[in-house]
Amino acid sequence: MSQRVYDLIGVGFGPGNLALCIALHESEEARAKGFSMYFLERQPKFAWHPSLLLPGAQLQVSPIKDLATIRDPTSSFTFLNFLHWQGRLVQYINREEKVPSRREWSAYLAWAARRMDQYAHYSQSVQDIQPVEQDGKVAYLRVISKNLLTNEIETLYARNVSTAVGGFANVPAVISSLYDFHYGSSNASRVVHSSTFLPQMSYLDSILQREATTSDEPLRFAVIGGGQSSAEIMRYLRDHFPKADLTMIFRASALAPSDDSSFVNSAAFDPESVSSFWESGIHQRRAQLDEFRRTNYSVVRSDLLAELYEMVYDQDIDYEDAYSPSKGIVRIMSNTALVGAEQLSNARIRLETCTHAGEQIVESSEYDAVFLGTGFKRSAATLPFFNTLAREFPLLSEEGTERLREQELNLDAQIATAKDPDAMRATVRGITRDYRLVPTDPSRWMRDNHSILSMHPTVVPKIPAARSVRERMLSTSRSTSRSGSRATSRAGSPKNSPRALSSSNIEVASNLYRPQAPCNLYVFGCNEHTHGLSDSLMSMVAHRANVVSASLMAATQYPEPKVNGINAPPCPTIQ
């Protein structure tokens, strides 16, 4: 294994890398070039958010935005083809529902992953990724992983690495010391994050049910957060513990519906939106992220929102039904922040909250369990296997990321009028349009032969489709605004600013990122700041796979790197 040099090693085998694997598997160019790839996944088998497969939970994106349709509607990996092969296509059509259940979507993804088993290696925890030099240049990457079944360390080599490992639980600092869960353990921690909800409940459920039958008082549960996950947890708890008192605590003034309107979806999640977002300045991008947060953050699907409101409304009806069991109280605490948490000796948890609507009220209450629908952290700088590469790529460290943000703020006005704006954007942001990280020292990652570098421009393939009126209007307005901005700004261009990048640095970046160095690191799911709100969402995986596979094809024309001074033997290639 140590003598192989793969064209691509993927870290993580969730929807992001799975869509890329499928795109390359179906690529005639990749097959003709003998492209080789291998994907390492920590889990023992493919699973997509298994802890959130709650009864009634639905997908929050159109099923047409699957692993392949936007890239190639004729692909055999589309959701509709999955339904056809499962014998459920007609029945699904008869449902007349816009979206499938999350359970069915998970089954679709697992079906697609099983068809790509030849490229996947499960129970592998990547420990480190290291650059390996030849003649003073980085020639390839060494990927060190641990087999979780045998505890053996394995080493692989690759020209390119793509990472798509998803997010990590965002646990509020005030309660983080009480959150403790490890897969495979019998830990029954009473602080439960949505990312581990079902596995934790498999341990905690029997304990809580026993307490519910032996206590004279109803169980009391707190749910922190006002988004989709919190709402789904509220529904689950109401169904499984109908006599428990439920309190939902969140900062916003009210629970809000997610904005899934056609115009907003088009502006935020269409493939074209990624390019327009990328071409925007830092202030424009921040404004757009704030504007479209209502599509994904701290919002609830309208149908579930109506269910929650019915819970609250129904309990105020003054009528006793002898044939229906009594239910616990549902309490909604808006404009409220969690300010303290304490584990009590009786296993309960005391929460301190502060309400900011009207008169400030500080309240202390005890709960039998606390559930966190507080979202996920998505930052490449937090991934431990990037510790070595953090010295090479500024975007892989918190300090480097901050420096890039400051640099872009200072250079924002100059980018649009630069000789090569795409190269300058990549340099000041630390990442290219096609998801490759920019090294601190680009010259270390370049071959001496520059003639190859001019053969291909930076490739962002278009999805073959007729251009809409909206696209034509946007294209016209962009070309007008660009030509206007150049005409007005050239005379006063701050090209002599001490903060400006030198022309030589831009030239180096331009050579390196058109199309690429012989060795590249792609990062998915952590790029909301540069690639838009859809970067970590399912809606963009097929389009991104199209972009990245084209980028990888442009990179495979470099000379064969050597391991230990000899040409590496052939790798398993796409058949």
TrEMBL record:
Keyword match Membrane: no
Record's compositionally biased regions (Low complexity): 475-493
Pathway annotation from the record: Siderophore biosynthesis
Superkingdom of the organism of origin: Eukaryota
This enzyme's EC code(s): 1.14.13.196
Record GO terms (molecular function): oxidoreductase activity
Catalytic reaction annotation: L-ornithine + NADPH + O2 = N(5)-hydroxy-L-ornithine + NADP(+) + H2O; L-ornithine + NADH + O2 = N(5)-hydroxy-L-ornithine + NAD(+) + H2O
Cofactor or coenzyme needed: FAD
The family this protein is said to belong to: Belongs to the lysine N(6)-hydroxylase/L-ornithine N(5)-oxygenase family.
Protein name as it appears in the record: L-ornithine N(5)-monooxygenase [NAD(P)H]
